[in-house]
Structure prediction request, 606 residues.
Amino acid sequence: MDTSSEFSSRSRSTMEFLRRTVVYLRPYKWAAAGNIILAFFTIGFYFVFPYVTQYIIDTVIGGRKMDLLLPAALCLLGTFLLCEFCNALRIIVNTHFGQNVIFDMRRDVYARLQRLPVHFFDHRASGDLMTRVIDDVASVHRVLVDGVERTATTFLSIIVILIILLFKNVTLTMLALIPLAILIAGTLWYTLTAHRRYRKQREAIGAMNALLMDNLQGVRQIKSFGRQNHEDERFRERADGLRHSTLSVMKVWAAYSPAMTFAGSLGMVLVLWVGGPMVVDGTMTLGGLVGFIFYLTLFYQPIGRLDGLNQMLQSARAASDRVFDILDAADEQQGWDRIAPLKTPVRGEVRYDRVNFSYNGSGRTLKDISLHARPGEMIALVGPTGSGKSTLVNLLPAFYEAASGRIFIDSQDIAGVSLESLRSRISVVSQEAFLFNGTVRENILYGRLDATGDQMLAASRAANCHEFIMSLPGGYDSRVGERGVKLSVGEKQRISIARALLKDAPILILDEATASVDTVTERLIQEALSRLMANRTSFVIAHRLSTIRNAHQILVMHHGEIVERGNHEELLDRGGVYARLCLIRDMEEDDKGGVQKRKAPYTTDL
Ligand SMILES: Nc1ncnc2c1ncn2[C@@H]1O[C@H](COP(=O)(O)OP(=O)(O)OP(=O)(O)O)[C@@H](O)[C@H]1O
Ligand SMILES: [Mg+2]
Prediction:
């Protein structure tokens, strides 16, 4: 399993991590302060316990003043009550504040994710990105909310108790500090080595979720190929990766954490060893020693907590690398001067001027593409599969950026046009119809959220989907399922055409929009479209010649180049590639007795 490149992220230092995450605390500084203050109170009340205990042992029991026992016990009870009350308040403040921080972070990460260029998603697994938005963000938020509180309370407790201990007995305190050196060395070692392990663990979670998401979407393929066992094995591998990485984190933790606690106990033993004789020779009272030991427990407790804090920090740091990878990725606008809106009204003249493009930087998917679509023209693109037709049209709404050359809409270079303005003027029906998991109505209205009911009906009639929608049990309120699984491909295509028509943009891109509907339905859609396309510039990619016969220009593509151009008659007269394709198609139609075969891709050797 090679998951390294797909799921990895750039490593950032602890300082960078802290500097950048603390930003999220700023809007809630008062809540953070309140949280810390309440935590101080809670701890402060805990400190009273050893003091009162010492008082009961030495003064009440030792001095045989039993009448003081009740007030002392009540005092202790009151302290505990106050302590837990503060604790309850702290939990409430902490939760509110924590949820606000996580909400802000998730919102930012998601907003950024949506504005990343399409090619970012070409190289990432959706399941891994989901893990980053959900798990990794939660891990980072924990360190901000719990971490800040714990750091503050831990350090304050350590200092306060140290002072109390020094006041009580300097010699014993010095002894108690001996294990501190071991604790510091251990913590340092853990901090320096933990990041790598946590990082592996987070990558393993991402890898497992990515596979899970992929397989849930491909469940029909898994079944039809009978690959359940194969997928069991693949999932087992990923889950095992997670098990191993978690075990490796925990193995080290299992050695480190008890070792640190043991070092603390060492101090306790030393204090008893030296303190015992002190009580016997009268330099210290018994209550004094017991009180000292209680305080000592309270001293080692926060020191022990430092390990947990460190564990939380290192885990969050590894998670934050993955979150910042998203936040730091260049957004679609970056590096381009995309500020001008597209000048309105858009006439719809489109010009490509010597455009070159490649997906990976090397090789050329589009070579020297030049074309000129006058307003209202229909431009058809034909050519073998993989010849670059979809790529060519995807450059117009700037899903990808051309490597060289320029694209103009109404003489305005689109490289300088804001994406929002550009995309609002282009309707796209993509090759793979995608519907959101909602109702039919919601999916069509996605084209224009404020469209009236009549406008929506007009669009769905033009796309010839009104009738089938009405025959669904819930009509326009029927749910389409995830990605529209409850509908046939042709139905999905028609709904996506309706959605695009509702958008009512001056430029229309139809990438195999009617490839999966029958010829009769297609003809009906064509008629409606030709009315609608009359004053729009449209780019139509189709394998059926009937769809493109009436196009003003037909561009024949091959290996990323436009090898022929002209209208149907001109290209037939030329007797080139297009004419050959038509000939083959005519023969196919003859074979079928005039009935067109569905989607027969051009595989002709051009
Ligand atoms: N996201 C992508 N990342 C990398 N390469 C891609 C990507 N999309 C397409 N390609 C490659 O670019 C080339 C052109 O693909 P494109 O989708 O434009 O072809 P097409 O003409 O639309 O084919 P079809 O008729 O099958 O839809 C192909 O070789 C394809 O492998
Ligand atoms: Mg395509």
Summary: Strands lie at 350-357, 366-373, 378-382, 404-409, 412-413, 426-429, 507-511, 537-541, 553-558, 561-566.
